[in-house]
Automatic annotation (TrEMBL):
Gene Ontology cellular component list: nucleus
Protein name, as recorded: SET domain-containing protein
Matching InterPro entries: H3K4_H4K5_MeTrfase (IPR050869), SET_dom (IPR001214), SET_dom_sf (IPR046341), TPR-like_helical_dom_sf (IPR011990)
Domain SET: 1-81
Transmembrane intervals: none
Organism, as annotated: Guillardia theta (Cryptophyte)
Amino acid sequence: KEDGGGLNMRQVVEDICRLSSNCYTIVDEEERAVGIGLFPVAALMNHSCSPSCVQSFRGRSMQLRALKDIEEGEELSLSYVDPAEPLAVRQEELRRRYLFSCSCFLCAGEGPKAEDEEKTRVLAGSSREAEKRVDGLLRMAREAAGAPARPETVLEQQLDAIKAAELVLGPHNVKLLRAREEALAVSIEVQSWGVADELSSRIIESYRRLYPPGFPVVGVQLAMHGKIKMQLNDIQHARVLLSEGIDILRRARGEKSRMMEEAKSLLQEIEWEAHGYGRFCEDMSKK
């Protein structure tokens, strides 16, 4: 029905719905959402919770990269949702945002069920009351992160909630994973590198279990952990982490991504130091 200005409001609503269902969330180099974009060709690609491709963004352009070797005639797919989330959460988001239920081999029960069960696992012997209490502590920690409080106080509350959660939730439970991610951001902010090191180690363990092989968020976290190790002067482990992170990011993001170039620069710095070039370059720069 048209309004007084000649607009067909039904058509407007339908166009908005089409945009919402076909647009992509644009993320930065560290996988943080910064906006949305409409890419007509990529919008034709179907969803899979175990995708063959991953998208990245550079300016107004979207790039597709393969996560694995793809056979001739094999369908290309992307994940419309975070594949680390449990089955019920993925299905709910797909129904709410895209109006369909996923029937990929993971959702159909043909994939490794143990991995999906780990996402919601509660430790044996834990009561429902204990789980509810932990949920409350984690919620309070999230709220504290958004409140105008000293970051050191926020981090202390987050770590207390995580410690309580570890007694009830499985090691790769997504609730525990998200709490660790939030605490890691605060620990880096206050430069508590020992805490950041422990949190990042646990996060990487969960990422390896919950994300498809080669997923970019794993490479980003490995590179970040390499930088944390450098702050702790643990050069040997920093080299290993940065090298593995670079291998993943090279495939998922390409050689020219900012995160890739930064990680390569740090690795080169480590190699120079290891071969005695660091002091030589420093001396040369003073001449």
